[in-house]
Amino acid sequence: MTDVRPSTERRPTVDLRTDGRAALDWAADYLERVGDLPVLAQVAPGDIRSRLPAHAPEEPEPFSSVLRDLDEVLLPGVTHWQHPRFFAYFATSASEPGILAELLAATLNSVGFLWRTAPASTELEGVVLNWTAKLLGLPDGWHGHIEDTASTGTMAAMIAARTTTGRDEVVCSEHTHSAVEKGARMLGMRLRKVSTDAEFRLDVNELGELSDTALVVATVGTTASASVDPVPAIADACEAAGTWLHVDAAYAGSAMVCPEFRWAFAGVQRADSLVVNPHKWLLTPMDCSLLWTSRPAELRAAFSLVPEFLRTPDAEDALSLSEYGPALGRRVRALKLWAVLRCYGRSGLQEHIRRGVALAEMFEGWVATEPGWEVCAPRHFSLVCFRLEGDDRRSRELLERVNASGEIFISHAVLDGRYVLRLAIGQMSTTEADIQLAWDVLRREARGL
Ligand SMILES: Cc1ncc(COP(=O)(O)O)c(C=O)c1O
Fold first, then answer.
1. Does the beta carbon of 265 sit less than 6 angstroms from any atom of ligand 1?
2. Rounded to an integer, what distance in angstroms lies between the CA atom of residue 246 and that of residue 157?
């Protein structure tokens, strides 16, 4: 006969208090020891899969087995984004308040289809987006909500631009993130890439005719070199042509908590939409990407579709954020950002950003004065692009060697047709000693080439 007891009675293997304490201890221990682990996973494809059973267990297992296998089976296959010497892509941190808030968000398991299915979550999201807009110096009154990634937020902007303008061309620079090309392909929109100037910024003289263009994507902090496109001049051209201006500040947007970096946001107040990823440089666990728009009515018109089963008698100001983006079910992402903003405060966030930039400046200085090495792009924030003088092969080999050492993890880009190395600083626990060690490892491995 089918067992009809409540599922909690049949689940004796997990005790939230004791197992929860063990999981929290695991998390605290991990953050203390992660710097001693190899930053890049030292496994081959398939290694981890081969150590996992092919079937889920027939009978319940204790949670302690999950924690044990996390250590014994999975950990060797983890590339440690929380490592103080993770310098690849854009280094990022999940800070303690964000980690704890994720646990609480999963506990609430609130699903924000509609305002009434998640009033607190919906209203908190609006408030936290307004707080963040103020911290970054954005104009008052923009509508903001959270998407999973900048890829999704940017695609939402592309959809709104197409719906609003009735056009289907997307214009961006050759250094715009590939998310834009991927979005255009998925949406069946035409993509036109504009060349960049000597400092890897979109060349406005090459923007060309925009009368058939749905949107231009300008980037503040490109992925390859963190260059800053000339947003004011791009905004002029977009305004003249009735074209939507989307600004991608996924990485560098977080730096705007410090007034000294706001020069890079010049013109952003004229954008139709903007993305910033606190999951990159603002201490918030993946995933948390903020999408603001100065044209909420147009964004809503592009996405709102309310079938009968979702109709409610709630008032019009009972905002349903699912009407502003692709997803219907929305989790409580605002909780972790709220916790981070409160537990760091503006001063703590500024200190984090300034420390990363100061460390990058220090590293840049060492590279610039070392014979045989060169800095390859202006450094505006916490990313340094550099290479060994000579052909690409040496820098390429150097990257492989330093990453294989497990002591540091860096990534690469191509600038002006040349292979360059990228050291991106953004981890909460990175110290001067870590940067010194990175430089020692790079020079040691370069000598061995
Ligand atoms: C400038 C820029 N835009 C967009 C993205 C894509 O971000 P996401 O992973 O949130 O889609 C990145 C990722 O590094 C980026 O650097």
1. no
2. 7
